[in-house]
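Request: Could I get any protein with tokenized structure?
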Amino acid sequence: MDKLLENKILKCLENPKNKNKVIKFLQEIEEENEKNKTEIDKKHDKLFKEISMDREEASINIKTIFGIYIEPKDIIICNCEFRTGRNKKLEVDVLYRIKGTNQFFLIEYQTKVDKYMVYRILNYQVEIINRYRPKIGENKEAPLVMAAVIFTGKGKWTAKTKLAELQKDIKNGIELIFGNEKNLGNYIVIDIKDLNMKKLFESESVLDKAYIFEQSKSAEELIKNIYLSYKKIPLKRRELFEKAVRIILSGKISDNKIDEIIEDLRTKGGNNMSTMVQQMLANEIRMHERRGERRGQNRGRRLGIIQSAKGLLRNNVSEDIIINSIGITKKELQKIKESIK
């Protein structure tokens, strides 16, 4: 809940009789607001998924992450959606298969640390194994699923990367019986902040350029990096690069401005962008971001008022106190009452 609103309510409800009720509904509001704040930014997923669906990019991706070179023609882009036994939908970010084998590469892109990632990876691996396991009588190997997390967020990845790290052996000698190859649930982590920026700029991969965009610390730097990156992209990959630029700039500046940038890149090949133009575009990005922040703040404030009223009503606080304390009309309060019946 908005801190100013919380203080106002607490001040207006200093009556000792209402104190326990106030504490209870404030806790309820905070819990509900936390749920509403947890909005996953789909833009990052969309950016990396779109690029990863290209076979040449897939080949580079596998080499960068797993250290294995696979010819683009030998890579199958797999369906990433699964239905569990309980009919629950699971969707992995990227899943590659080596043609003619039962070997898979599972890749997840994360902007935040997920302490349950081991369990998610295990769940995905089991579903992939179930889908692609050999049929009775088939002379095929069981599926092998190698997993990786590409971390694009701030700070360091602190979650466990091996299932064994979350388990406790029954006996110290259990490794002698089962061996130490506990691969299910395990994954490797690639933090894009640890990647060599010089190599990323020199690379012809659009995915590598997307990693550069993600590390841009300011609007000016993002625009500059887009132009510098364009020079290194081969002609046959520029359409994919332009698609990535549209995704990364979407919501930051108008579609018309994005079209202008794309046209300017095509015309000048990423060269001769003046500092003044960079500054103008950066200012527009910041302006759009501020508008988005204000919209979010206004929505959050309105949500806080509604949730405050609901909490007070549930705790039997009188309508007069609610109206006076959080500044809503009687008509608005009536609508809120009807919504929780």
In short: Strands lie at 75-77, 81-83, 89-91, 94-98, 103-110, 144-151, 188-191.
